[in-house]
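Researcher: Let's do a round of design. I'm pasting the structure tokens now; please hold your answer until I've finished.
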């Protein structure tokens, strides 16, 4: 099988290696472009048309490529079009939050084969990999997919992650930090892991609001504040793979204690948890608000969505709470805007659903703290698909890894 020939120590030489790489390139081009002619493919991989047709025939025999009809004629015969078979290559994509995880099984057209499954877990759950495996198998079996046709599994997760080695240094137990090793041992597939904010950024860059922009910043605003960056058209991981830890920049001197062990981090001022805690305090103090009327004596039931809903109904307290966190994020973003000069900033996550109630104060802070010549051309938008952008980002990375020349 072409997808597995050059892993697990098998060495290819001569024409076998050349054809292996050519076939991988064909699969990659078809993944990126959906349908292509043999003539176009032959030019892209630098071979004659008969050679390209021979390679496509082999890929067809392997049930990886299929004929997709004919293209438009440019004076001669109408070219035959080829594409990836929809039901022959699958990947398992997972995204972890602070308290739960999501699992999606995708085909080579980036399509979900079943609804996303949600499980209760975290990066410090000793049974994380076992849970992911069990739920993934349920989805695969329930949809009649041959497990042999699942070639890769990946996780987008919070933490300081070395994506090259597959290690998450934020996991408390050192023996569990090598997530890639644990996944390979359980699934026996190609694996990839990366930070959740970076994978959300990549999903937005390939499929979402940042598509078409070479320099983008994507904010994942949930229980923390993640930042993913695309610089000059490439996902930026940083020297050690830890770029984008916006949550833990120093924001307030002698501020509240953060989960990272330091005080005054941005997360302690604007996270979803902080927003809810401030709403709870206001209700306990009998502040005039729709939240007080609804949640008095059971403040712990307040959720971010409740604050946003009240704001949309004109509740002054809720609007003020959202305005405060929005202004704080805008101030923090001002520093990164002046350093990186992005074309676009995409904001996703639970708090992003407040839309204009956070966008307006963010923009006001940026206007206050940034040079207009730098920030004036930066577009700021809310993600329309943030709940799936992380899964789509890890999916795209898995297929890239699967179709690359070499796999670790």
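Researcher: That's everything. Go ahead.
Model: Designed sequence:
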């Amino acid at each position: 099988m072409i997808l597995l020939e050059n892993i697990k120590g098998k060495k290819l030489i001569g024409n076998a290696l050349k054809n292996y790489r050519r076939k991988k390139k064909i699969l990659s081009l078809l993944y990126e472009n959906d349908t292509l002619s043999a003539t176009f493919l032959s030019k892209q991989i630098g071979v004659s048309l008969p050679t390209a047709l021979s390679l496509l025939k082999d890929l067809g025999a392997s049930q990886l490529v299929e004929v997709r009809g004919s293209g438009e004629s440019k004076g001669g015969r109408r070219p035959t079009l080829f594409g990836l078979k929809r039901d022959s290559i699958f990947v398992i994509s997972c995204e972890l939050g602070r308290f739960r995880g999501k699992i999606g099984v995708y085909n080579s057209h980036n399509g979900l084969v079943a609804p996303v499954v949600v499980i209760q877990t975290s990066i410090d759950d000793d049974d994380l990999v076992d849970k992911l495996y069990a739920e993934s198998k349920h989805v695969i079996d329930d949809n009649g997919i041959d497990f042999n046709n699942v070639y890769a599994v990946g996780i987008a997760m919070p933490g300081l992650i070395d994506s090259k080695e597959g290690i998450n240094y934020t996991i408390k137990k050192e023996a569990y930090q090598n997530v890639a090793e644990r996944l390979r041992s359980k699934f026996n597939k190609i694996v990839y892991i990366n930070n959740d904010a970076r994978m959300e950024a990549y999903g937005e860059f390939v499929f979402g609001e940042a598509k078409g922009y070479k320099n983008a910043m994507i904010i994942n605003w949930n229980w923390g504040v993640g930042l993913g960056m695309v610089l000059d058209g490439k996902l930026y991981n940083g020297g050690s793979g830890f770029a984008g830890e916006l949550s833990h920049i120093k924001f307030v001197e002698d501020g509240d204690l953060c989960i990272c062990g330091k005080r005054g981090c941005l997360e302690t001022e604007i996270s979803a948890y902080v927003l809810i805690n401030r709403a709870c305090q206001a209700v306990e103090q009998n502040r005039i608000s729709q939240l007080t009327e609804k949640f008095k004596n059971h403040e712990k039931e307040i959720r971010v969505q409740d604050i946003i809903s009240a704001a949309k109904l004109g509740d002054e307290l809720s609007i003020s709470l959202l305005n405060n966190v929005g202004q704080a994020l805008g101030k923090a973003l001002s520093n990164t805007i002046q350093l990186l000069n992005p074309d676009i900033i995409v904001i996703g996550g639970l708090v992003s659903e407040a839309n204009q109630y956070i966008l307006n104060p963010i923009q006001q802070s940026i206007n206050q703290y940034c040079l207009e010549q730098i920030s004036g051309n930066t577009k700021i938008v809310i993600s329309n698909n943030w709940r799936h952008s992380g899964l789509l980002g890890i999916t795209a990375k898995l297929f890239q890894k699967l179709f690359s020349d070499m796999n670790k």
